[in-house]
Amino acid sequence: DMLKTAKVVGLNSDQEAALALIRTFDLESRTNSFFIIIYTSVEDAFTKIRQTLAEVEELFLDSEKSPAEKLDEILSFLKNSLKEAEDLEILVASLQLEGAKRVFYLLGLGEKISALLFRDAKRINLRQVGQGEALVSGFLEPGDRVVLLTDTVEEVFNPNLEALHQVKIEEFEDEVLSKLPQGEIFPAAAIVFEEELAEIPREVLDDSPKAQFLRPRVLPILKIGFSKVWEKVKLLKPRSRRSWGVLVGIVIMALLFGAFSLTRLQKTRLEHDRLTGYIETARSEYNNAQGLKDSSPAQAGESLEKSKAALASVLALDTKNTEALDLQKQIEENSWKILKIHQLQDIPLWLDLSLIKKDFTSDRLSFSVGRILLLNSDGSSLVVISESTKSHQILAGKEKLGESTHSSLNGEVAWIFSKDKGVIKIDTTTDKSLETIKVDDEWGGIVDIYGFGGNLYLLDSGNPPAGGQIWKYLPIVTGYSDKKAYLVGEKEDLIGSKRMQIDGSVWVLNGKGEIVKYTQGVKDHFSISGMDKPISKIKTFYVSDTTEKLYIIDEDNSRLVVLDKSGVYKTQYQSEKLKEVTDLIVEEKSKKVYLLLGNKILQIDLKD
Questions:
Q1: Is residue 220 over pLDDT 50?
Q2: Contact 394, 388 (CB under 8 A)
Q3: What is the band of 421 on the pLDDT scale with cuts at 50, 70, 90?
Q4: Does residue 224 register a pLDDT over 60?
Q5: In this predicted model, what pLDDT tens digit does every residue of 439-457 receive, in sequence order?
Q6: Of 21, 93, 28, 97, which is closest to residue 57 (Cα–Cα)?
Q7: Contacts of 584 (CB under 8 A, 6+ apart)
Q8: Which band of pLDDT confidence, cut at 50, 70 and 90, is reported for residue 139?
Q9: How many alpha carbons fall within 13 Å on the CB side of residue 141?
Q10: Cα–Cα distance, 288 to 22 (Å, whole number)
């Protein structure tokens, strides 16, 4: 026998969500399959439904009640768990193997989730069979297809609901997703399952509102076998005790052989259903991962791992199981799409800095208007490079730069921080030094410099116990104003800070390895979410007013992580070389990332 299933979930939000769950179990469990769809609107809707579904699954497995009682118990549990929710819609269903057939049980709350049965040329809405929360049950026949769906899915298919019957199960998810609004919040969920039991005689389903189906009564096979053998024995009419003994022996041997054969048959069937259960679980979790890849990458990763674990269980029992091997191949080919992980086999060289000057190395990059600025690690040379042509220009040497440590490019102006000369401003079009900000005794420990919108910012990591500060200098007629403390209100501790980027807000990599965002001098909310595994150690990062994303080098995990500016995970690139990167810049318009490794700049292409 074969039960095919598939599900699809639309794009949910924190306020409104629709989720679906499919679980298939082997014959050691009392029930073979369990389905549920929940829709509601409530604060943090997606997370609450996910947590509730996990609890429901455990409740379903642990319960010793009948299938009908289980569904009633689960519906009550869901109503209580989500009692704060508005517009709560629930549909729970299960399939129980009764003899050679499956019995379908259905129970629901609300009117926005339908259960459509497609049988031959008929379409029956099973939710209309029962009244209110009445249980609906019946046999699932060969070729039957049941579709559980929210009204949002039903709307996009109307008036051609027959398409839900005609599309192949394997293509069901793609077909439904193709009709949902692309890239928009659209809470929607659907589950489809189809029975393929060609060898089982068909029976006609009564589609009247009072349709009920009796359970089949199956006599034990062993009892049937014994009765037939005994009838044969009586016909032989043995004439002596010895003949009787022989016949009794034959009967016992026949029964033992039959019992042995039956045991083997049951064991084979049990193993088959166990494998089928694992495969259906793997497929369900894989489909779940695909549905969550945009709304919750972290949970998508969890589902993907569950799918892989279920397949591993199958292949441990049957190494040549073609269905499992095919699904495993499919998962391997598409895992990167779900987790949005790009494995970089090689990172090509963009420029060898020794071609500019022998022994030229740097540990910082600055980028503005198509040009890259680098300061030699020993402070002896300042170089600007064209991104488009790779042509370079040496702007200044040791005499002009002094004991320089940090530099920043802002349009045509290069800023250089020098321990002995203060801040030097150089016009990159003429190579001439402009105004200089003198050394200030109140500077604690300048660890980065950034020019933005004509203003200059210095990241001062400070000294204990005073803490740190971000100093801001404004252009005036005679040069630049006196320094102003950018941070206002409660003073943040910037001791140990390493890096600063500005896109209107000021972003700082602090001594704790955290990225902190400040807007108008006040700490702004920023937190990283949706990661498949946490960022271990931030080595450097990049963000600017010309990027929509935030880029982080996670040293311990050898990866480049891409987030949106609210901290939500988007994608990542993995390569062992990435742990050696000291800095990076990104040009989103040309989809290029430039990575600095000592005396070399490597380049990778951003992928959609």
A1: no
A2: no
A3: very high
A4: no
A5: 998 898 999 999 998 899 9
A6: 21
A7: 365, 540, 542, 551, 553, 560, 593, 594, 595, 596
A8: confident
A9: 13
A10: 9
State pLDDT tens for residues 331-360: 888 888 888 899 998 999 999 999 999 999
Please identify which residue in the block is written with the tokens 């980028």. 367
Distance in angstroms (rounded) separating the CA atoms of residues 13 and 287: 19
Could you give the 3-state DSSP secondary structure of residue 51?
Answer: helix
User: Per the structure block, which two tokens stand in for 84?
Assistant: 């704060």
Continuous segment of H or E residues that includes residue 553: strand 549-554
Do residues 104 and 146 make contact, with C-beta atoms less than 8 angstroms apart?
yes
Q: How is residue 233 written in tokens?
A: 């024995």
Split at pLDDT 50, 70, 90, the class of 540 is: very high
Tens digit of each residue's pLDDT (9 = 90 or more) over 227-252: 554 555 555 555 666 666 666 676 67
pLDDT category at 374 given cuts 50, 70, 90 is: very high
Tokens, residue 68: 């009908």
Question: Is the distance from CB of 466 to CB of 500 less than 8 angstroms?
Answer: no
Identify the H or E element spanning 190: strand 189-196
Do 544 and 565 meet the contact criterion of CB atoms below 8 Å apart?
A: no
Q: Is the dihedral of CA 218, 223, 226, 227 positive or negative?
A: negative
Residues 6+ apart with CB under 8 A from 340: 293, 297, 569, 570, 571, 572
> Sign of the CA dihedral 353, 355, 357, 358?
positive
Give residue 596's identity as a one-letter amino acid code. Answer: L
User: Closest by alpha carbon to 574, among 533, 543, 544?
Assistant: 533
Strand partners, 519: 522
Return the half-sphere exposure (C-beta side, CA atoms, 13 A cut-off) of residue 168: 2
Q: How far is 469 from 457, CA to CA, in rounded Å?
A: 10
Nearest of 542, 576, 577, 547 to residue 561 by alpha carbon: 542
SS3 582: coil
- Do 496 and 516 touch, CB atoms closer than 8 A? no
pLDDT greater than 50 at residue 375: yes
Place of tokens 């549920």: 36
- Token pair belonging to 315: 């292949």
Q: What is the 8-class DSSP label of residue 217?
A: -
Query: Residue 401: pLDDT band by 50, 70, 90 thresholds?
Result: very high
pLDDT at residue 383 greater than cutoff 80: yes
Q: 474 near 483, Cβ under 8 Å?
A: no
> Six-digit token pair at 574?
């993995």
- List of residues 6+ apart from 454 with CB closer than 8 A: 410, 475
Task: Say how many C-beta atoms besides its own lie within 10 A of residue 61's C-beta.
Answer: 14
pLDDT (0 to 100) of residue 53: 83
CA angle, 133 as apex, 131 and 135 as ends, to 5°? 85
The pair of structure tokens assigned to 288 is 């779940």
| Rounded Cα–Cα distance for residues 519 and 368 (Å) | 21
More confident of the two residues 292 and 367 = 367
- Decide: 565 and 525 in contact? Cβ < 8 Å: no
- Which helix (H) or strand (E) is 336 found in, with range? helix 322-339
Matching residue, tokens 């996990």? 54
Residue with the bigger pLDDT between 581 and 254: it is 581
And the tokens for 144?
């039957």
